[in-house]
Design brief:
By secondary structure, the chain is α/β, with parallel strands linked by helices. The chain has three domains: 8-103, no CATH class; 109-262, no CATH class; 268-395, 3-Layer(aba) Sandwich (Rossmann fold), CATH 3.40.50. The protein contains 20 helices and nine strands. The site of one iron/sulfur cluster has 16 residues, from helix 5 and helix 6. One iron/sulfur cluster (SF4) binds next to helix 5 and helix 6.
């Protein structure tokens, strides 16, 4: 009798065929939709279709030696399009990545460093945990830090790494704090106790590090009383939904975009300042394709007086990935050395072609990625990049 793995954590490449997920992989009809939709399909030697073919032929070792999956940016496009419903991005690709990375003798230095930093400091930027809440000093509204004031809170705001440390991420923090205040939300942050939620570690196949981070965060959350967790991180949100829930996380959960969208009736009358922007919105893969959060950011943007929304050629489920997921955030140098086009550059050209003067985003990785892309391929464009929460906070000002 086959051993059916009870949950995703128990699935390995060795027992895959004995699991329901493995049975689904066997149903692959080699249609090539996955390779055709992959943003790096033209350079990926082994896209999902070929990986499955090699797996069935018992020749996976060749795939693992190819470094093919270093170009998988975990955009969920292949999984969304697969007519057999094979959970490529959630199940098969992380398993293959894990084995690839174990065998890889020359891991790209930037990615190696980001993972080491995450293990050592709890964030991929290598910043001191003590500085995680430093942005609070520049917030114009009070922000309660739970480890120093342990009273129960309604909203526990899981800030995440890029938001907490990156200068443009900190703009996002100040905007979010201002919006919470405007709505009278009782909120608090975890300060120096918060660590990376672990998405990058999991999707680059570093399952040991991922387990360490999830164990830590589950214990940390158990220390405090709160009703709802709200996170600024698109990848953190995705991880809480798909990885922490099966591990027992049972609080109400929101990304900042869904949180503010659910309170739009209360927020809209406060959006008084007219912003004369033409805005195009980039769907973060982790929010859109993986969690169907397409309408919420657009509703928020449409509620800002003066904002005109225009769509890029590829939008919603067909949106092009910014290239930052699955470790791609730390592989730009590697891609450039290989002569691959950076996906953030491909995407910014589409955004500019709409005639918009603002590219709105909702993932903290994307602000710096697209601001860099504007410098390299933006030409004379006057486009600026803003997180949705930054635009909302700007409209609050009068
Ligand atoms: S889209 Fe699905 S069925 Fe088609 S080749 Fe890819 S994995 Fe196989
Ligand atoms: S998840 Fe995206 S990048 Fe990775 S193989 Fe699928 S389509 Fe390609």
């Amino acid at each position: 009798m086959p051993v059916i793995a009870e949950d995703m954590n128990e699935i390995t490449l060795e027992n895959l065929w004995n699991t329901p997920e493995g049975h689904r992989v066997l149903s692959c009809m080699q249609c090539g939709m996955c390779a055709g939709t992959c943003p790096y399909g033209e350079v990926m030697e082994y896209p999902p279709r070929r990986i499955i073919g090699m797996l069935k032929a018992g020749e996976l070792d060749t795939v693992l030696r190819s470094q093919s999956l270093l170009t998988c940016v975990t955009c969920y496009a292949c999984m969304n399009k697969c007519p057999r419903g094979i959970r490529l991005t959630e199940v098969l690709l992380p398993l293959v990545k894990e084995q690839t990375f174990i065998q890889l003798t020359d891991m790209p230095a930037e990615l190696q460093k980001a993972l080491e930093n995450t293990d050592r400091y709890g964030n991929p930027l290598g910043e001191s945990p003590r500085k995680r809440a430093d942005w609070v000093k520049t917030s114009k509204v009070p922000v309660r830090i739970l480890p120093t004031d342990r009273k129960p809170t309604d909203v526990l705001w899981f800030v995440e790494c890029y938001t907490a440390y990156h200068p443009r991420g900190q703009d996002n923090c100040r905007a979010t704090a201002k919006l919470f205040h405007a709505l009278g939300v009782d909120f608090a942050i975890l300060g120096h106790e918060e660590k990376c939620a672990g998405e990058c570690a999991r999707l680059t196949g570093e399952t040991g590090l991922f387990d360490k981070l999830t164990d830590y965060t589950m214990k940390l959350l158990g220390k405090y009383k709160f009703n709802r967790l709200v996170t600024s991180g698109a990848h953190a949100y995705d991880t809480f939904v798909h990885e922490y829930r099966p591990r027992g996380f049972n609080h109400e959960l929101d990304h900042t975009v869904s949180f503010f969208a659910s309170r739009l009736d209360q927020l809209k009358p406060k959006l008084k300042k007219k912003l004369n922007y033409t805005v195009t919105y980039h769907d973060a893969c982790a929010l859109g394709r993986h969690n169907n959060m397409y309408d919420e950011p657009r509703k928020l943007l449409a509620a800002i007086p003066g904002v005109k929304l225009v769509e890029m050629e590829h939008n919603r489920e067909n949106g092009i990935c910014c290239g930052g997921g699955g470790g791609g955030m730390w592989l730009d140098t590697y891609y450039k050395a290989k002569g691959y086009e950076r996906l953030s550059e491909r995407r910014i050209k589409e955004a500019i072609a709409t005639g918009a003067n603002v590219l709105a985003v909702s993932c903290p990785y994307e602000v710096s990625r697209f601001e860099d892309a504007l410098k390299t391929v933006g030409g004379n464009s006057n486009m600026i990049v803003r997180d949705v929460v930054e635009l909302l906070a700007e409209s609050l000002e009068e």
